[in-house]
Amino acid sequence: MGTLYLVRHGQASFGAEDYDQLSELGHRQCVALGQYWRARGLKFDAVLTGSLKRHAQSFAGIAEGLGEVPQPLVWPGLNEYDSHAVIGAIHPEPLGKPNGPEEYRHHFRLLREGLQAWIRGATQPVGMPSYTEFSAGIAAALDHVRQHHHGGSVLIVSSGGPISTAVGQVLHTPPDMTIELNLRIRNSSVTEFAFTPKRHMLVTFNTLPHLDSVEGAAMVSYS
């Protein structure tokens, strides 16, 4: 039996012109995760990442803390959906940068509604695949792990949408539950699957063992 660790990227640049960049905190989160694994002697047989900058930067932070790590296989099917396009499909008016709690809540209400519409097939956000195609890209990555790395330890570095979708596929959750899982995944969190050549099994979800301290608690983030 193998073990698959799915890691959400570190804190990115929410509200900035280019979200797809790790913040300084995001880098420290990922280095801390690598250091945590290094202290426990964890070694990976294979690594897959999405092709976004925040995925590559998160992997680099993990590798900095962990030490020797295999070169990653870049898998675009592990890329996140475009949240701006998802919201724009139901709310065409431009949204300003959130500047307070109510504006943040409004943003995530729209995101939840946009995801629901996309999953149902009621909208087709500009420049994005259908939800069926998005899900298929994630399922293909899981299939690859089962087929090629049985008995090994595998790392996937991706985003909240793909990770929650993977959990939903393993647990056969309804779409609304997948969305709720997505909106609660923390930066640099670890979700763990055990796997055989036939299936994946959920072991843990959205854990932060590397931030389990007074100092680490101040590094927890969601965006």
TrEMBL record:
Record key words, sorted: Hydrolase
E.C. number(s) listed in UniProt: 3.1.3.-
Source species: Roseateles agri
Keyword Hydrolase among UniProt keywords: yes
Family matches, as Gene3D superfamilies: Phosphoglycerate mutase-like
Protein name, UniProt field: Histidine phosphatase family protein
Any one GO MF annotation of this record: hydrolase activity
This protein's record includes keyword Transmembrane: no
Pfam annotation, one family: His_Phos_1
InterPro entries: His_Pase_superF_clade-1 (IPR013078), His_PPase_superfam (IPR029033), PGM_Phosphatase (IPR050275)
Lineage of origin: Bacteria, Pseudomonadati, Pseudomonadota, Betaproteobacteria, Burkholderiales
Residues spanning the membrane: none
